[in-house]
Amino acid sequence: MVLSPVIGKLLHKRVVLASASPRRREILSQAGLRFEVVPSRFKEKLDKAAFPTPYAYAIETAKQKALEVASRMHQKDLRAPDVVIGADTIVTIGGLILEKPADKQDAYRMLSRLNGKEHSVFTGVAIIHCCSEDGQLDMDVCEFHEETMVKFSELSEDLLWEYIDSGEPMDKAGGYGIQALGGMLVECVRGDFLNVVGFPLNHFCKKLVELYCPPRREDVQRVKHESIPAVDTFEIASDAAQGDEGCGPSRAGVDGHSGQAPAGPQGPDTNGLVENPPPFPSDLLDLIDGFKASKALFTACKLKVFDVLKEEGPLKAVDVARKINASVCGTGRLLDVCVALGLLEKTDTGYGNTRLASRHLASEGACSLHGFVAYHDEHAWTVFTDLESAVRQGPQAAAGRPEEDPSQSRDRRLRFMRAMHGLTQLTARQVATAFDLSRFTSACDLGGCTGALARELAREYPRLKVTVFDLPEVIEHVSSFHPEGWQPERLHFVPGDFFKDDLPDAQLYVLSRILHDWADDRVHELLSRVSRSCKPGTFTGPRRMMLNDDLGPVAPPQRVVT
Ligand SMILES: Cc1cn([C@H]2C[C@H](O)[C@@H](COP(=O)(O)OP(=O)(O)OP(=O)(O)O)O2)c(=O)[nH]c1=O
């Protein structure tokens, strides 16, 4: 397994290790992870008898350590980190859990118990993903444990006491440190060595792969037919048909798919051999069907389904229909599609938002993509409907369209700003922290729209003054995207056209989702203007830099240092 792409998944996140253990810090930094260390204040005093297994105890302790740090950091500045990692290592022998010795006598008791025998070392790990929204902290916990068997040699009393007098046992589970002098006590190890030292790096990386790089659908072994539990049909599962006659027969999905892959070649071929069926073209079918899923999502957003369910869910289809003023039959079907798309959950009490939907598809909230969805529904959808003629006739097809009336173009601009604001709020932190920009004191976000990225840059870098440069008709609406009386420090807005007017002076120019909009000659013109605005750097002074995040939030931004 190649590890760097795995660890790389955490590169743009603010990661905190909730541990005072120098070993854990070393293991994770040697793996290339960038993180802060915030030792947990959780007292390791859980009732061991309450846990069915020793590792369940270690996992719970690890989880509590991480949760304590996440909520403390959230309370402190209302912003929890993205990921908090907690761990707990214990030694077990004969059903007894050994943690750190209280004193030398305690260390002696522990080491005597381990002397000449094999014991288990468990490390429980909790990876917590945090999301602070509207002052609330949401946490997703992923937990696991690793066991390693360690066998001690027969050790003399003298050696045990000499080892105890070295002071090494005192901050270590079981009273020894395998990575140092304690290595002399150990005859053999079965399993992950680093797990004994305090952190099961290999298992951790596998978890990251599971979390961030799930296997492609075609790589997952198909579930045997008999093991698929019986499910209700569309009609039975949905309460939509209640009191609504016109719905027609039930169907298994949006488009009548049975949900099963088509049968492969029928039985043995003429030679009695079974032919290998060609790979099932799931990606292709997803592409063909994709527009239906998008439109279902757009429609549910437009009808405010996710807002209604965020406020009042879970609700039956009939109640949702009443609230959004739509037909019961249609609403029921739309809700079921949203369930199939993973946007809603359905239980006996009705339909409710998934966390994803409440966070991103309801119209309010710091992580809302509602405006972004609306823009795609109202603008991108229409433009893409004309794709064929655009390809046939070239860009002049678009140029030949009648001019929009000014009020329409104002509405369209506002919709566009809403879309960009939502998306940028979501990605700004990753862009702002992708590079260390602390050496700059001035930046200019060209086409910075509502200032969502500029605000994050100013927040991240206390010395940085940020200018947002955008068209006057954009700047005019900025205040409606921020709370009343919003007066950000070190952030100001300058109206202008970056193709015509002088660019504000700055050490750092940011072009976020700008360049893709223009043909090559325009891009060249814009970059030349930026280049001309950059004063020549010196070896001692701050250097000029241009940041372009057109590649999207996950790809590393391109950098040009002039
Ligand atoms: C068995 C063994 C444990 N240890 C260490 C790993 C852990 O740091 C420690 C077990 O105590 P833990 O309670 O797991 O961790 P900690 O108190 O050091 O740090 P924190 O609670 O803040 O996360 O024992 C070794 O260094 N070598 C060993 O061979």
UniProtKB/TrEMBL annotation:
Region of interest called Disordered, as start-end residue ranges on this chain: 242-276
Domain of life the protein comes from: Eukaryota
Keyword Methyltransferase among UniProt keywords: yes
Keywords in alphabetical order: Acetylation, Hydrolase, Methyltransferase, S-adenosyl-L-methionine, Transferase
Cofactor(s) required, per the database record: a divalent metal cation
Domain O-methyltransferase C-terminal: 387-537
Cytoplasm in keyword set: no
Domain O-methyltransferase dimerisation per the UniProt entry, residue ranges: 285-363
Name this polypeptide is given: Acetylserotonin O-methyltransferase like
Organism of derivation: Felis catus
Record lineage: Eukaryota, Metazoa, Chordata, Craniata, Vertebrata
